Amino acid sequence: MGLFYPLQWIADKLTYDLLSLAQNTRLAASLDFIIYDILKIFLLLVIMIFAVSYVRSYVTPEKTRKIIGGKKGLIFNFLASGLGVVTPFCSCSSVPLFIGFVEAGVPLGVTFSFLITSPLVNEAALAVLLAIFGVRLTLIYVIFGILIGVIGGYIIGLLKMENGVADFVYKIKSREFIEPKKNQSERLQYALSEVRQIFKKVWLYIIVGVVVGGIFHGYAPEGLLATYAGNKLWGVPIATIIGIPLYSNTLGMIPIIESLVAKGLPLGTALAFLMSVTALSLPEIIILKKVLKKKLIITFVAVTGIAIIITGYLFNLII
Amino acid sequence: MKIEILGTGCPKCQRLEQNVRKALEESAKKAEIIKVTTVEEIISYGIMSTPALIIDGEVKVYGMVCSIEEIKEMLS
């Protein structure tokens, strides 16, 4: 981690010089680690949000729905899922996006591919995962996040549930508009304002998450979670189900989950929990009720939930 | 001049409205401001990412807030 050496230097300075804590004590080591983690997350967060927001200024949902409208095939599930990665993770945007996609003739399954991946894989979560779990796990998370969207959407498409969409959605007609021109400085400004806004929303959760995780790291007994939660058979579905009603700030959750993994929680179970909290949150389901009938909501939750459980098992098997 | 502001009432949409009003004030222009707040109506404009600013029927910007200066330029 040579790249983050300056952050370690700052953390050391703060801990040992500014607060003048004695070296080699548990408290100092914990604090040093916590400061370093927070700095690392903040740095990656700024870089990731900036980069993805810049890309987003080119790949807008309005343009994408024109491209994938009226076309069927697994490749479009992939495209929609990929788009889900760059669009914002705010659940308030899912209803307009859903209606817009359906209106443009995007098949239901393709629309769901987008709807599943969008909250699951977002730049802010990736930044925190990268800081806490490293490159390899983050890549695996991205790949599975996209695959869950692609396969889940594809299955929903096969089920032919077009009548599960609220009737009013099909009545909406939209007109074409001429794409406004954006210059480079506008795109950069947009990326910067996104960084500011998301950062303002999440920084406190991250600090709380890292501190709680740090305390757990330092003071919970080793192997605490290896017995009950460590059950590789039941752990995954239970973690997934617990994750659905839980709606918390995922970003703050990641460092806590990492500390649970360190105490014996299997990685696949942790991953299933994290994905369930992110992709299947109660507020998201309530918002989607505006545009989906009950049976389609249940199908959406079931298909996504099962895909997450399978992912968790796969992980526990491999690692 | 007719200015339409599309947004369901999120903080970003409110900021855009404030910026539009300030820009009008500073450039001493008058315009009719119409707020479009329901999802159905917003989609009917072909737009999914809010907030959006439409001046005399032309989509000027969507999915982001623009500054007072930028709006002033659009108004002239």
State the CATH topology of chain B. Answer: Glutaredoxin
Oligomer: heterodimer
Number of helices of chain B: 3
How many domains make up the 3D coordinates of chain A? 1
Features:
heterodimer; A: 319 residues; mainly alpha; 15 helices; 73% helix; 0% strand; B: 76 residues; alpha+beta; Glutaredoxin; four-stranded mixed β-sheet; 39% helix
What does this protein look like?
The complex is a heterodimer of chains A (319) and B (76). With 319 residues, chain A is mainly α. Chain A has one domain (2-318). Chain A is built from 15 helices and no strands. Chain A has helices spanning 5-18, 26-56, 61-68, 74-86, 94-103, 108-120, 123-133, 135-158, 167-171, 184-219, 235-243, 250-262, 267-279, 282-288, 294-318. Chain A is globular and about 70 Å long. The model of chain A has no long low-confidence stretch (mean pLDDT 88). Chain B is 39% helix and 25% strand. Chain B has helices at residues 11-26, 39-44, 68-75, and strands at residues 2-6, 32-36, 52-55, 58-62. A 4-stranded mixed β-sheet of chain B has the order 2-1-3-4, covered by helices on one side. In chain B, helix 1 (11-26) crosses helix 3. The longest helix of chain B is centred in the first third of the chain and has 16 residues, at 11-26. Chain B is globular and about 35 Å long. Chain B starts with a strand and ends with a helix. The model of chain B has no long low-confidence stretch (mean pLDDT 89). Chain A binds chain B through residues 60-62, 65, 92-93, 95-97, 99-100, 103, 168, 172-180, 182, 186, 189-190, 193, 197, 290, and chain B through 8, 10, 12, 39-40, 42-50, 58-67, 70.
